[in-house]
Amino acid sequence: MADSGGTDDVISADEEQQAARERRLAAWRASARALARGAAEHRIGERLARLAAEPPAGYDLDAGVDLYGDGIVEELELRVAGLLGMESAAFFPTGTMAQQIALRCWAGRTGSPVVAVHPQAHVEVHERDAYLTVSGLRAVRPTTEPRLPTAEEIRDLDEPFGTLALELPLRDAGFVLPAWDELVAVVAAARERDAVVHFDGARLWESTVHFGRTLPEIAGLADTVYVSFYKSLDGLSGAALAGPESLIAEAKAWRHRYGGALFQQWPAVLSALAGLDRELPRLPSYVAHARVVAGALREAFAAAGVAWSRIHPEVPHTHQFQVWLPYPARTLDEAGVRLAEETGTTLFHRWHEPGAPGLAMTEVTVASPALDWAADDVTAAAHAFLARVREIAAAAG
Length: 397
Prior knowledge:
By secondary structure, the chain is α/β, with parallel strands linked by helices. It has two domains: 18-46 and 282-396, Alpha-Beta Complex (Aspartate Aminotransferase, domain 1); 55-278, Type I PLP-dependent aspartate aminotransferase-like (Major domain) (Aspartate Aminotransferase, domain 2), CATH 3.40.640.10. It has 15 helices and twelve strands. Strands 2-8-7-6-5-3-4 form a seven-stranded mixed beta sheet, with helices on both faces. A hairpin with a 7-residue loop joins strand 9 and strand 10 (320-325). The chain is globular and about 60 Å long. The two termini are 36 Å apart. The model has no long low-confidence stretch (mean pLDDT 95). It comes from Streptomyces coffeae. Its cofactor is pyridoxal 5'-phosphate.
């Protein structure tokens, strides 16, 4: 009987979590206003209809489907190589696969299995140590500070390394980027150490504003660059690895070995091409408006007398940034859902407590839906959100 009771408790908790998720999604989907629409808010029929109604510019939907990476896949690869100013590019079903193959290829060419990488980088935090466990590589840490490493830190590493991997922007540290001169110096320091440079550029597309440089200028600093099609371009999935023609040819061989040579990929590729048409030109406006939104939130929190709050970075480097508030994540999640249900406005999505309990953080994305929000709209929504936070906190005692 004791075992049965324990199972009932587990099932009950799972059902409670599922009910909470369904409630959140229903509230977000029904909201008339939001700063961005997350992938979980979309429905299959809506995405299929949009693919058919808004195909990439000039693409003939009567063309044949791709088979094992030909046709439309090759068109996307050519376009990405051109946009980044690289010799060649390869499409991958996931960024995790693209990253570990890139690092594996460079390890073979440099003769060194050692990768210099930040401990908060995507390959360390979100890929289940794929490059370590699958490819047998090893990491060294230039810095543990919540920022990209400096040139001095690269020069001072006390052991050799074959590849320097830089995530631009460094998402888990707050979507932060170095200054352009700092990035140039870091790359130069790696080359002084006879290392190659790989950019994890999943969100590189929106970094042009902060750097004040074009995509080819940014990508041109690195030997290889990985970019994502769904994180900022609203694609269904997929990634690309761009670099020298010979390395990309080798990467395609490894792509086949890793199971990445899919029979057909046209839905993801169509959405990627459409994202390059539709979202890529808009990203600078999203970055500019993110700074308006961040400033309005900061002023609203101060005016409301919040004991402590933080917008990080204070001036966002891209169209994404962190918001920190001194309340439990559960309280903030509930306040956000109530705000959406009662006013039709989604201001924040999920909150997390990555540090001390009772201190929560959320990531804010400013995309096309946010462009209709003036600073006063953000301020009003923030005050309405905080009012619900305080109601919930007071009820909890």
